[in-house]
Amino acid sequence: MNPSFQLIDRDWDKIIKEAASADRTELRVVCPFIKVQAAKRLLTGQRPDSIRVITRFHIGEMCDGVNDTEALRLLLEHGAKIRGIRNLHAKLYLFGSKRAIVTSANLTEAAFFRNHEFGFVSNENGIIERCREYFDALWNRAGSDLDLTQLEGWENRINAVRVAGSRPSTNSGLSDEGANAGLGIPGMVLTPSVAEVPQSFVKFFGEGHHRASLDLAVLDEVKRSGCHWACTYPRNKRPRRVEDGAVLFMGRLMENPKDIIVYGRAIGLRHVPGRDEASAAEIALRGWKATWPMYVRVHHAEFVAGTLGNGVSLSALMGELRSDSFAATQRNASNGTGNIDPRKAYQQQAAVQLTKEAFAWLNHRLELAFVKHGKLTPAELETLDWPQVRLPNPSPPAHLSKFQRWLVTSDGKMEGTAKVYASFLLRCTEHYGEIISDRTVCKEIDAQRIIDRVNHVVAERGRWAKGTFNTHDITDNFTPALRAYLRFIEATFPVTMR
Q1: How many CB atoms lie within 10 A of CB 37?
Q2: Which residue of 96, 140, 217, 451 has the lowest C-beta tally within 10 Å?
Q3: Class of the domain covering 200-382
Q4: Measured between alpha carbons, how far is 222 from 301 in angstroms, rounded to an integer?
Q5: pLDDT digits 0-9 by tens, 309-348
Q6: How far is the C-alpha of 368 from the C-alpha of 304, rounded, in Å?
């Protein structure tokens, strides 16, 4: 590369690919948001001898799809060491001693190909050395390395929230597992990413003899259909085509004019027989589910505020894109055989698959409707019915019985105090999802970040439920219990074993 310092505002995929080929000895990445397709691009070709990544470990953001657990898994499978930091926003890519890139671009397809991103690339030794110093200092503050067991625990919790529709209040229980590195930057408000999707569909609600009017409130239609957490299909038509991560647009059959109005969207989950079928209680609530009992569960649903008239006309899409509206008509047009009229393609169908062109058209216009009319608020969505689900919890704290005995024999505690301390560690795991072991509580900073996370959730929920903590519990019992567990780990497990 010449010159040794170059400002860049385009072609980030080419810039990073070229840098990766310049030096494969070591790859260091600082990036808050990593998507799996972009991670695959970064790892294409010869595997670096060493990979270290600093990113964000906020489980709620992973649930929202702005960060991929699949990308973290891919990196771990390639031998990467990964650490997490709260409120991280920096982006730095270091390729051995040959190239440094500082940029606004996250490791995502959108950043590589669509967004306007700015930064620089350099092969100047002084710049590379300063970037390495920054990375090393941040790495040393970033806590413990991620492992597959921990990642699988996060994925189980995320899946439980998604299966239940991602009710607005559930995200408060999805904590930030990153280290507190003292960055002091306010957390960002993020929305689910629908830009990089494998598929998209329009799911139809209503029937030819049961059409709605433009003045029907969107909230009433959502209550009627239950599409905030499940899209329904007929008993004899299991929805096998929908993949995880597909975007489903909700469309209502309209009476005057005859049209289909798209009033919302959500992210779909692959249909699982047995799990994704209406229960007796759900049929009792919505009797028509007896004939429409098959589900594609959805999560992170968003709906335009006001009435259905504020939505987007599917007739307008078909009029503009014609055969490029739907996957089937586009394929037929390409093959020169079969139906190419989109208005005939969706008749008698529960849903229709969109082309990439139609997805872009419809998603853009729905975004404009959101800007103009607003969205149904989290408070409004909270009033709807939601499926009941219990968040899976990690295993009980490791060595709990041994810890309780150690408190009495080595730390001078009374048996009653030892029992209380052990119970508080167990309750922390059960109610706040914290994994407490000799790997997660190695240093004072590890104990403090768990205390900080629990404090944050307790303050945010603002209410007490059986088994959970209040602020006095954290100060008087949980904090001394966790610090005692740290002393137990330090005394019982040599550093070489941790």
Answers
A1: 15
A2: 140
A3: alpha beta
A4: 10
A5: 999 999 999 999 999 999 999 999 999 999 999 999 998 8
A6: 10
Angle at 309 between CA 303 and CA 312, to 5 degrees: 65
Tokens 């799809």, residue located: 65
Three-state helix/strand/coil letters over 261-285 = EEEEEEEECCCCCCCCECCHHHHHH
Q: What is the residue type of 331? A: R
Q: Where in the chain is CATH 3.10.590.10?
A: 200-382
3-state secondary structure of 195: coil
Helix, strand, or coil (residue 55): strand
Q: Does domain 5-161 have CATH number 3.90.220.20?
A: no
Question: 252 near 270, Cβ under 8 Å?
Answer: no
C-alpha span between 146 and 127 (Å, rounded): 29
Identify the DSSP state of 182: S
Max avg pLDDT among 185-199, 311-325, 390-404: 311-325
Token pair for residue 128?
Answer: 């590379």
Predicted TM-score (pTM) of the model is 0.73
Ramachandran assignment for 497, one of left (phi > 0), alpha (psi -120 to 50 degrees), beta (any other): alpha
Length of the chain: 498
The closest alpha carbon to 36, from 62, 17, 2, 3, belongs to 62
Q: Where in the chain is CATH 3.30.870.10?
A: 5-161
Residue with tokens 């004072």: 444
